[in-house]
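Journal club prep, shared notes

We agreed each person brings one worked example of a sequence with its structure written out as tokens. Mine is Histidine kinase domain-containing protein. I'm keeping it raw so we can talk through how to read the token line rather than staring at a rendered picture. Sequence first:
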Amino acid sequence: MRRVARSVRTDRAVFELSVELAELAADFAGSGVEVSVDAPAAWRVPVAAVRPLYLVAAEAVHNAVRHARATLVEIELREDGEGFVALGVRDDGRGFDPDGVAAGVGLTTMREHAIEAGGDLDLRSGPAGTTILIRVPASAGAATTVLETTT
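Then the structure, token by token:
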């Protein structure tokens, strides 16, 4: 329920990515799944990419818990040294064959959110888990971002 509430922000709602990712991780406290967040580059994410990156991270975490039976999920948001910010979500779940799975709503919307953020989605999965990576151009943004939405 919290994920849904976060994804439908009101017009001009304050949306600080590092805080939202930490709250996403806290949602799983006591669930048997450890979700960690390391997001020192959150302030460099362009305004237009904040919400879509959060939604990709949330979908990836939920998929890891729901489908992969993961016990550890790591969310990382770092500058890559080439003018980009990279969001990575890794889990230790059972993985899957991305070519052998029909593109469901979750994978499709993650790809759409990646495009909306100005990046693309790289998905790698195998028996040792799944990694999702999105790179977006870094900005000189501020720590707190005002997200403007249209209804």
